[in-house]
Amino acid sequence: MNNDNFNFDEIVDRHHTHAIKWDKCEADDIIPMWVADMDFKAAPCIIEALKQRLDHGIFGYASVPDEFYTSITNWFARRHNWNIDRSMIDYTTGVVPAFNAVIKALTKPGENVVILTPVYNCFFTCIESNNCKAVEVPLNYNDDYTYSINFHTLEQALSDDNTHTLLFCNPHNPAGRVWTRQELLQVNDLCIKHGVTVISDEIHCEMVMPGHDYTPFASISVEAQRNCITCGSPSKSFNIAGLQAAFIVSNNPDIKARVNQALIDNQVNSINPFGLEAFIAAYNHGESWILQLNRYIAGNFNLMCDMMSKELPQLHITPMEGSYLAWIDVTPTGLTSTQATQKILNEGRVMVNDGVIYGKAGDGFIRINLATPRSIVEEATRRIINTMKQ
Question: What percent of the chain has pLDDT over 70?
């Protein structure tokens, strides 16, 4: 499918289709730019695979075939130079259930789980649901509005006797960082030094902007592979999150056995037949689609930045290296992030995420989902500008 051109400009009406992203809006004139859910149709290879499965007409419990495992191993070897042995892979219903189960497997109630904030809000809920304590290590917010890891503060948190796990986000949501190999090596060295296991959420790994390269945490060294549990899925990148299919990779037999038991205990050790077909189709045939999508998202980001720099130059926009989520500092307006979020919703009729849900370091920021047709990005950005200029 390398010669195909995909129409990301097509507007698909999602009103009244039981889509959380749109149904949460209280009125049809609101543009939802909040939850990480794309407004693009899935890749044609996925739609075709689902049609074939639908035509079969029987949708019972699914067994997981060899092709599921080879789709993962071939994809990551080809695209990211990470050689995964099939024996390292478990399957589950989603990445959030995955790191929920992994935390359950690796921690005891009351233990610390270190996180680098601002970070995906479900990190907090998964830690809390396992009766552990989330220890926030704020990322450095630099003068050029980029983020970096404060390794001194990180080591202090990792050295605590009550800390045995780091829940890591690679690429980072919402800070937009695609961590470099050198940064990952530094994190790994500290974790090895202090006996801390890494749980790496890599669900956004295919959403990487031109000029940046994603490095799987577990691929950086033999030691990292043994000390890291990777949680991944094509769900975010290929817009199939509702089909509930994900994987976990661990090269440590003891850890893998404990994780597998936690998946069973949490009853998330299965995949539905449609999720299975979509998963395999994405990794076997979706590369051309994802490459074009990333270029399109980069265009959306550039459009938003150009419009805001002309009309709202006081706002600070973090460079987006990965994901499709813009991260914007609204503190120069004099508004809190909660006030800005409500103002944009009530007056601009655009729903964005309030940065406070991503930890203390997210206060003062908003998150905007750019995975939607460019005309919608343009209209939403115009509404935000008009609202914030008042």
Answer: 99
CA atoms within 13 A on the CB side of 32: 19
Host H or E run for residue 295: helix 287-311
Contact of 238 with 44, CB cutoff 8 Å: no
CA dist., res. 10 & res. 304, Å (int): 19
Please say if the pLDDT value at position 3 is more than 80.
Answer: no
Other CB atoms within 10 A of residue 10 CB: 10
Phi, psi of 166 (to 5 degrees): -120, 125
Mean pLDDT in the chain? 96
Domains and CATH numbers, the chain: 20-44+287-388 (3.90.1150.10), 58-285 (3.40.640.10)
Q: Integer distance in angstroms from the first to the last C-alpha of the chain? A: 48
Cβ atoms 198, 229 nearer than 8 A: yes
DSSP three-state, residue 374: helix
Tell me the one-letter amino acid at 336.
T
Task: Tell me the pairing of strands 147-148 and 140-141.
Answer: antiparallel
Packing angle, helices 181-193 and 151-158, rounded to 10: 30
Q: How many CA atoms lie within 13 A of 69 on its CB side?
A: 12
Give the DSSP per-residue string, 132-187. Answer: -EEEEEEPEE-TTS-EE--HHHHHHHHTSTTEEEEEEESS-TTT-----HHHHHHH
Residue 260 phi/psi, 5° resolution? -60, -40
Residue 1: which pLDDT band, with cuts at 50, 70 and 90?
Answer: very low
DSSP 234: S
Cβ-contact 38, 294 below 8 angstroms: no
Amino acid residing at 233: S
Token pair listed for 325:
């989520």
Band (152; pLDDT cuts 50, 70, 90):
very high
